[in-house]
Amino acid sequence: MRLNPVAKTVLQRLGLGLITLFVVSIIIFSAIAMLPGDFAKATLGQSATPETVAALQHEIGLDRPPVERYFSWIGKMAKGDFGSSFASRTGYRRTVAEIIAPRLYNTMFLAVMTALIAVPLALGLGIVAALYRNSWFDRVVNTVTLTTISFPEFFVAYMLAFLIISRDTFAGTEFAQSLPVWLAISINWTLNVVPKFPTLANINDQTPFWDHVWRAALPSATLTLVIVAHMMRMTRAAILNMLSSPYIDMARLKGMRPMVVVLRHALPNAWAPIVTVVAFNLAYLIVGVVVVEVVFVYPGVGQLMVDAVRSRDVPVVQACALVFAATYVLLNLIADIISIATNPRLLHPR
Amino acid sequence: MSESEYKFRVAQSLIGRGKVSRRDFIHLGLAAGLTVAASDQIFVTVARAQPQQGGFAKLGMAHGATTDSIDPAGYPDTFTQTAFSGAMSNGLTEVDAKGGIQPDLAESFESSNGAKTWVFKLRKGVTFHNGKKVTAEDVVSSMRYHMGVDTKSAAKSLLESVSDIKADGPETVVFTLNSGNADFPYIMSDYHFVIMPSVDGKADWASGTRTGAFVLENFQPGVSAKLKRNPNYFKNGKPYLDEVEFIAITDLAARMAALSTGEVDYIGRADLKTLGMLKRNPKIEIIEVTGYGHYTLPMNVTIAPFDNPDVRMAMKWAIDRQEIADKIFLGHATVANDSPIAPAIKFYKNPEPQHRFDPEKARHYLKKAGMEKLKVDLSVADAAFAGAVDAGALIRETAAQCGIDVNVVREAEDAYWDNVWLKKPWCASYWSGRATADWMFTQAFAAESSWNESFWKNPRFNELLVQARAETDEAKRAAMYGEMQQLAHDDSGSIVLVFNNFVSAQSKKLGHGDVAPNWENDGLKMAERWWMAEA
Amino acid sequence: MTSAEPVIQTTRAPRVRRTRRSRIRIALKKAPLSAWFGMGVILCYAVVALFAPLIAPYRETQVFSEAFAPWSHEFAFGTDQLGRDMLTRLIYGARNTIGIAFITTILSFAAGVTLGLLAAMYRGWLDQLLSRAVDVLMSIPSLIFALMLLSIFGSSITSLILVIALLDSTRVFRLARAVGLNVVVMEYVEVAQLRGEGPAWILRKEILPNILLPLIAEFGLRFCFVFLTIAALSFLGVGIQPPSADWGSMVRENATLITYGDVTPLLPAGAIALLTVAVNFVVDWFLHSTSGLRDEN
After folding, report:
1. CB distance from C205 to chain A under 8 Å?
2. pTM: predicted TM-score of the whole model, two decimal places
């Protein structure tokens, strides 16, 4: 049977993806089992007595052997039931699905919002930098983006928050008073041009859409600063790589404008590496933003997972890990499909 | 007094009742010959001092996790305690701003039979949020929730001395204790012991129907909890606020930023490092209260070398408490003296002499124990208290000057209370403190307590503990507690470093009276007690 | 790269082959300013890290009475919250942070490159097994996974190094395997196999030299990445443990000071950023001078 290469890849990868998810679930489950303490001890903390711990363990089912717990979990999982959080009590059920759904929405919201800003920005900067390589523009963009990824994420986040706070406080600082008046006034003016974005991104399910955008502005800006450099540099490198091929020389000799050469001839052939890097960064936006979530108090899945690991809430950790792993698998798959679809040699193999 | 001045005075007295708007007041002030700024200032001062109705306060809490719930078996930290116990519920009693005990849902209480029997009379006509009347049955079920074999309550041990509890008619509850306890009403003020409606003989916590000043509107675990005013609240005029929102902001820098930008009106546990700079902000007020909480380094007295009282004494002299208070707590702590009873607690007596850093004395006691040099492990983690690891670093430096080599072992944060505390010979620990000397000693120093963290069993101390508990003569009690504090100071394995101060910061828009010392956030009751001075 | 190509020695070469040293000298001469800057910075850091005890004015954990002392003659950058000299902490921080990042990166490369090349050479089940294992590891969020592993094994420096090296080696594996695949199909590898050379010899003498450049470039990037990972782990509370000085925790501990325009937390953060920028400059130049990209129009 001859399948379309795209369809074949998709099927193959989805199959492998399922196996990956399965293995991930085993690894995470065993890791939590190996962590010191369990949910009962973690919640009761200092005030735990052996009897209360035992009672709580019994209610949650932690007194059963781990292998048995794992199989009962995966059995439910196969039927699409994520189970209940350990924080549930009789008469007060908190399903994993209802805990994770709003968090996932928030994470996706932030990721999409950031991607909408960062991806076009990175591609645009990368193309222009490639076009005018070695110009001062190229150098400045390169250095600035490099610097932004060179700071730890949380530091970038704190700096942005500091800028917002400085709107009100700058004039009163000793530093401002030590500056010449005209300089202090113009710095103050510049600071006040920036809208007063909230440093607290604590949205909930009742937050209206535009308020959500407004509150997510600073986290999104932080993430943009963190991921643009990588994508921009790859775009630039991939295009430069293409620019050295003979067919580009041909196009140039035909007298085409550099911009047209890049957009029409170089870019379409440079998609594969660019898409891979974009996919990698999108995965990062969903999977790796826990630090930014903590700094801006943004209720996303990352923080949920860290919280759940701390409290040993196994079903929630498992679900988060699966969501993350699935994201990773799917994004890689999409990147591969785009690579194949934009490459005629792969799309129509001999 | 001119007419305009008179009107101005009247207006001043009306502000407190919310009858005069800021604008009208400034007009009157102008007529009385004041500037706009001056009358505005008076308006704010007067308005802040007087409770007034209305407003929506956003309160940033230092805790909050996705596993939080409204279940009173838990309430592990200030988020759940302040929002669900303090704002949403009531216990039988409460601690006032002076540290005294006051009836809350109870109208009165009295003891008999050598403080073994306690009778609580309930306030009449109090209803739950759903309109149901509060009866003795509800109280019994609510207490039983924390008792018995299968309870998952963290407060179980507090009620261990209760042998029987029963309703005597609809408005009276009778507690029978195993042994006399003059301080029992204090125990009833614990934040776990909230009164819930009884459904089929069992306390119903899951519905969130309580008696408190606020009704739960929206709760997102680990994010926020929003509550609105209970219009039928039994305390006259209270609560003042229309709405409160508790927001979980665990990151310190984020909390400070949120207050500075005005996104929240209050934050618990302010950053001590930048407190000085925060103070310069004229819109911010900082509240500091010496609480009952204290930081300890329990030595297991059953294990060598700590089984030797002279070694314990040497350790007590080898630590610079003042330096720890100054550097770890940046001066926002009160130096302690190896007794867990805070200065604000009744029967407090500072034992003699004050233990301070004294290499001579430390060496003297070490020599007395027959040692030249000593090498010990100190297990720490910031899970014990924030700064424990740094405190270990400081202790290492001072102890080295006394010939004691302290090896600071940094333990895992996770499951610290489970794996390190009560397990390692010498470790760091924290007590949020108890409102009475008896309560504190019973939990952390009594021989049979499962939390006797230094495994200290001093016969005289334990004898006094039981006697003092049932003693009703105040002077005799004071003498007994004085002796017990001295014994703890001289002999026990607990090194009590400092008492903590609750340091919170708030916008001056919020008004409040005297702040209670028993727990953080005005004894967890800030939502009920505080008001918005200007909306 | 010429070393691996079969050069016909019988006829006189048209040009005398340059020694490795002279080639490096020429390459260095052509290096742009940014690369020089980068190398200078890296050298300084290396010296500081190696000779920390000699350079630092005080002991690493020495405590002075005054906490948060201002910048002065005695304490160049003031003291931290416990009264420890900030400059000393920065210098020792260089040693701890760079040392750990360096060892971690070397370990992750040793593991990643070996396994990646083995997978590329043998393909078949070994390749499948390793690639799938790597897929699984990469699909678990690395920061949170590291957090869990460090909680299990304790945040000692050894486990910190091993855990980050393990998680990081997955990406090295991918790269090594990809570039390795391009090389193993080359004629000279086949020739060597036909000559009957052992796999270890082929790996070392034929394959490795030909993929060294992309690997070295990647080494620089991974090194920076490890650096930032350690900082992030310190932020979450499981990084390098006090009282050892490390830049990530130093930033974290003093972060709230930024809110008030105090520059103290900028020092360690700046130290991290400067090194990352420097390494990237060098890597850029490296890639640039070897990738055959023509810059002249």
Report:
1. no
2. 0.84
